């Protein structure tokens, strides 16, 4: 006698216009993308958070708290930027994955996540010292001013890349250096300001592939405002100034050979400035930047 056919309950229907619930792995991937932690960006943020302490040549628990606060506040700016730049990135083919990540997590959740990370970073910095807390607060203010109206420094010419470089480059290095007991010395300031100038130049170069999306939504970045060639010319001049400042500071503190090493590795970024897409510029250019920052950070430890 044949067996009776097994009856199965029909699969629940999804309501029209609703999306399937993302899997946990999708959420993790979206969080990594919205924080821009793909390789080599995570290493770059860690270098930015850490290398200032190398110039005071001291690492203890307080310094590690300062580095943690630096890393968290640097990374917290990325979800904010992804949220603020949804319209820009939607018009830029190579950045649409950021829009997808924001939509997958949810815009309100991204905003809440950004706020929570900034508050935690400020709390950790408060454990270090009032100076570290002040530095982290300034970074937060710069990120807010860069991304949000009414200031929205991103669309205000050269103020945008300068603000980004101060927030992600100069201030974290000063915070780590101060936490490690570093004293204000002219040579160290030359090194820090030189690295900040190099970061400003890189931000200008990396804005070139985004010019179509930025122009489409009226973001007056230097590339949109003055044209590609003018922005690249200014970036080249800022790079020269940054290399001179960096080299001068290293020469005064450690001698000409260490200065030559620091300038040489920092100039290797120029090899990646003419790559045709933002993906290639960021992947290969950022790898060169990470290597250069690691070498510059190691100079006081080796000299």
Automatic annotation (TrEMBL):
Source superkingdom: Bacteria
Membrane-crossing segments per the record: 61-80, 119-146, 158-180, 186-208, 284-302
Biased composition (Low complexity): 1-10
Pathway membership: Quinol/quinone metabolism; menaquinone biosynthesis
Region (Disordered): 1-23
Membrane association type: Multi-pass membrane protein
Keywords assigned: Membrane, Menaquinone biosynthesis, Transferase, Transmembrane, Transmembrane helix
A GO biological-process term: menaquinone biosynthetic process
GO cellular component: membrane
InterPro entries xrefs: UbiA_prenyltransferase, UbiA_sf, UBIAD1
Cell compartment(s), UniProt: Membrane
An example molecular function term from Gene Ontology annotations: prenyltransferase activity
Listed name of the protein: 4-hydroxybenzoate polyprenyltransferase
Organism, scientific name: Lentzea tibetensis
């Amino acid at each position: 006698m044949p067996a009776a056919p097994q009856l199965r309950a029909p699969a629940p229907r999804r309501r029209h216009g609703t999306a399937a619930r993302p899997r946990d792995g999708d959420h993790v991937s979206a969080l990594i993308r919205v924080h821009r932690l793909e390789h080599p960006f995570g290493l770059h943020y860690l270098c930015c958070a850490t290398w200032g302490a190398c110039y005071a040549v001291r690492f203890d628990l307080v310094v590690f708290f300062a580095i943690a606060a630096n890393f968290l506040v640097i990374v917290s700016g990325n979800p904010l930027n992804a949220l603020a730049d949804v319209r820009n990135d939607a018009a830029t083919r190579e950045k649409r994955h950021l829009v997808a990540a924001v939509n997958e997590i949810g815009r309100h959740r991204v905003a809440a996540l950004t706020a929570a990370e900034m508050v935690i970073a400020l709390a950790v910095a408060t454990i270090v010292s009032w100076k570290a807390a002040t530095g982290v607060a300034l970074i937060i203010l710069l990120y807010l001013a860069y991304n949000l109206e009414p200031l929205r420094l991103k669309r205000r010419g050269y103020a945008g890349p300068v603000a980004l470089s101060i927030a992600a480059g100069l201030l974290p290095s000063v915070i780590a250096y101060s936490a490690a007991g570093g004293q204000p010395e002219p040579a160290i300031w030359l090194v820090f300001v030189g690295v900040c100038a190099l970061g400003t130049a890189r931000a200008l170069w990396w804005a070139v592939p985004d010019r179509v999306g930025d122009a489409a939504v009226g973001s007056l970045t230097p590339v949109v405002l003055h044209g590609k060639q003018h922005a690249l010319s200014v970036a080249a001049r800022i790079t020269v100034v940054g290399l001179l400042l960096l080299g001068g500071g290293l020469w005064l503190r450690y001698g000409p050979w260490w200065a030559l090493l620091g300038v040489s590795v920092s100039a290797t970024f120029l090899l990646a400035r003419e790559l045709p897409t933002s993906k290639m510029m960021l992947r290969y250019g950022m790898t060169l930047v990470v290597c250069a920052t690691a070498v510059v950070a190691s100079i006081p430890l080796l000299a």
